[in-house]
Design a protein that fits this description.
two-stranded antiparallel sheet; 10 strands; C-type_lectin-like/link_sf; alpha+beta; C-type_lectin_CS; 8-stranded mixed sheet; about 45% helix; disulfide bond; Mannose-Binding Protein A, Chain A
Length: about 230
């Protein structure tokens, strides 16, 4: 009987140990399952982010492709327009010239004179912006010969114009041109350079210093092409 009890006790202890071992392994398995589940969730979240980023990149690439296409079409259209302006067709033959249609060729430059009605005249800044859109700038006078040409050419046929803006304005107490150079011949304008003042030109009248916010006509200038 004692041996039987001992055997039963021994078997019970063995079962207890096995149960404890199984329980511990079950806990370890549960932890591993939880870890694997968490890793799976993390991977799914990362995959979702990657998919979203990939979708965003594809959308951005599509947008950029469209913008590049539009830009190329605009550049081509502008190039063709410039070709037509500088080299118009006459009986299917292109006749190229130094300046675009409507521009005046003088020495190495092209000029266009804007003499609008009073309601469409512009401030100095507005006039310069208009020139910029034509790939030009307000005219810069570099020599006495050019000044004489400018003073004689830009006139108001109807006597309505107060003056034409040129590319000269006061900066830091000096008269400066649009190319950044100083006015070297001070006899061209006798008035002092006061900030906020710009210069106009008109036939039979000295250059005049007026407020840059006044409205006037304007003269644009750009380099002539070599043809």
């Amino acid at each position: 009987m004692t041996n039987l009890k001992n055997k039963l006790y021994s078997d019970f202890n063995a079962l207890t140990l096995n149960f404890t071992s199984c329980k511990n392994k079950s806990l370890e398995f549960d932890i591993q399952v939880q870890n694997l589940t968490q890793q799976q969730n993390n991977l799914m979240a990362e995959n979702s982010q990657v998919n979203k980023k990939n979708h965003d990149l594809q959308t951005e690439m599509k947008t950029l492709t469209e913008e590049i296409k539009i830009c190329k079409e605009q550049k081509l259209s502008q190039a063709l327009q410039i070709i037509d302006e500088y080299c118009p067709k006459v009986e299917q033959v292109r006749n190229c010239r130094s300046c675009q249609n409507g521009w005046i060729h003088s020495q190495s430059s092209c000029y266009v004179v804007h003499n609008p009605e009073s309601w469409n005249q512009k401030t100095w800044e507005e006039a310069r912006e208009n020139c910029t859109r034509k790939s030009s700038d307000l005219t810069v006078v570099g020599s006495e010969k050019e000044k004489v040409k400018t003073d004689k050419s830009w006139k108001d046929e109807e006597g309505n114009m107060k003056g034409f803006w040129i590319g000269l304005r006061a900066e830091g107490g000096k008269w400066k041109w649009m190319d950044g150079s100083d006015l070297t011949n001070q006899t061209w304008i006798k008035q002092q350079a006061t900030d906020g003042r710009c210069v106009t030109s008109l036939q039979n009248r000295e250059w005049k210093s007026v407020r840059c916010t006044e409205k006037n006509g304007w003269i644009c200038e750009k380099k002539a092409l070599s043809v």
